[in-house]
Amino acid sequence: MNNDSLLYKIADTQEEFHQIHQMNYQTFVDEIPQHGANEEEMLIDRFHDENTYIIAKRGRTLVGMIAVRGKRPFSLDQKLHNVESFLPEGSVPCEIRLLSVKKEFRSSIIFFKLVEKAVTHCLDNGYNLALISGTVRQLKLYKRIGFEPFGPLVGESDARFQPMFLTRKRFESSSKAFNRLMMGRSRKREPVNFLPGPVPLHKSVVEAFSQSAVSHRSSEFLNQINEVKSRLLEMTGARHVQIIVGTGTLSNDLTAAQLRKAAGKGLILANGEFGYRLIDHANRMGLTFDVIAKNWDKEISIREVDEYLTIHEEITWVWTVHCETSTGYLFNLKSLGMVCKKHKVNLCVDACSSAGLESLDLQEVYLATTVSGKALGSYPGLAIVFHRESVEPDMSLPRYLDLGMYEQSKSVPYTHSSNLVSALLAALRKIDPTKNITLNKEVKKVLTREGIDFLGNDDYSSGIITLPLDEYISSRELGDNLKKREILISYESKYLLERNWVQLALMGEYELKEVMKAMDMIIEEYTNLRVKVEAVQ
């Protein structure tokens, strides 16, 4: 959460007071049931005319508030008899009340900053002690700031508060340490990332990428890239692999360039965004091919492919994605390979979203592609091409699309990135596909329990969970709300927005506890949107 863009001030406009009354209602009616509901969903504090409100704003929007009041009797006087008997001798108290911070801002330093500014206001106005009724849910935090509890708990059973006071001396000694703690947490906290790229990284990957760059001609770099290639071949059973500076789009262009040299006609399978992109790759390279195309998420069966190849003996290659990233649909690569072998057809596979997650046997696959920045768990920027046959350079191809040039030069014909290669090597050393399979099952359990639909079944990818939202819930609004709460889901791609879908990708470094905590917030935001819509229907 970036706190630099926040403004702290004393409220002095009607717009600010209006938002204060709204936040007061949201906190002390909806969240903490101290007051009864009303149709206006506004709660004007009974001491409003005597309160000084210190607020935090982002732009014109109120995100936090606290009220200071010096006139007796305090609200605490009405809850606890003989307050003075609990206070230090010589106390000149004021009361701090109505502390509230919007949910998406609560894991930031705003809470402390509001208290800090309220206490400073008290001290500047001649008071030497601040009273507060601290919610029992935040006692640890209040104590860290320097508040001392006194007397018994007050309030109703479902809204209990601890009377507390803060002296100048305690505040000054506690605030420095607390400020350092909160600032440290603010710097370290990263969003929970459910994107299909860039993915959350293991700390060893970050450290490897941060090392000083070395020459792509040095023995140090060549040893690293050779180990990367060796690990990729061992992981997939492929016979050859090349590492290129670029993206998955480049790796598929390299595949198309190789297919241009192959005799005969091709067949492309497409039932989602990335299958249809293979058609575009093929068209741009001037390939001759047929298509088995289905609507998104509709099955293309192995039987259909078998029958098509039986009828169309001129087909010499088949090209498909393994995991269709736009839906999570997973082609049965083993069965497809058997059909292609039966018809003596070369199989080509886009494995950009499956390598590192799914079982992948590329020993008999003619060409296959993947990337560094998805399920392999590293930074984006390296294109990877597996190939069954040895490839000679082809002078008719652009240099950057000539796979033979990469094989001839052991993947280093031109300038390479030692940082990206080093990071990928660190990721391959840590990769554990079974971990994310477990996460996938736990996330789907939560969704099933809450009655939220997702595409597919256990045959779908363990790295992509697609949620087709009901028409009354906006995918953009859900995604925007979660982003404010530091949870990143996939929703901003054009093809997802058009279908009102969102996706949760599990392709990087995660901890189950962190994922489950994020799922609670995802369910909360989903439910809030559903309730809001149902309320106006």
UniProtKB/TrEMBL annotation:
Location of the N-acetyltransferase domain: 6-169
A Pfam family assignment: FeeM
Cofactor(s), by name: pyridoxal 5'-phosphate
One GO term (biological process): glycine biosynthetic process, by transamination of glyoxylate
Keyword tags: Aminotransferase, Pyridoxal phosphate, Transferase
Record-annotated membrane-spanning stretches: none
Superkingdom of this protein's organism: Bacteria
Gene3D superfamilies in the record: 3.40.630.30, Aspartate Aminotransferase, domain 1 (3.90.1150.10), Type I PLP-dependent aspartate aminotransferase-like (Major domain) (3.40.640.10)
GO molecular function: acyltransferase activity, transferring groups other than amino-acyl groups; alanine-glyoxylate transaminase activity; L-serine-pyruvate transaminase activity
Name this polypeptide is given: Aminotransferase class V-fold PLP-dependent enzyme
Organism annotation: Bacillus salacetis
Organism phylogeny: Bacteria, Bacillati, Bacillota, Bacilli, Bacillales
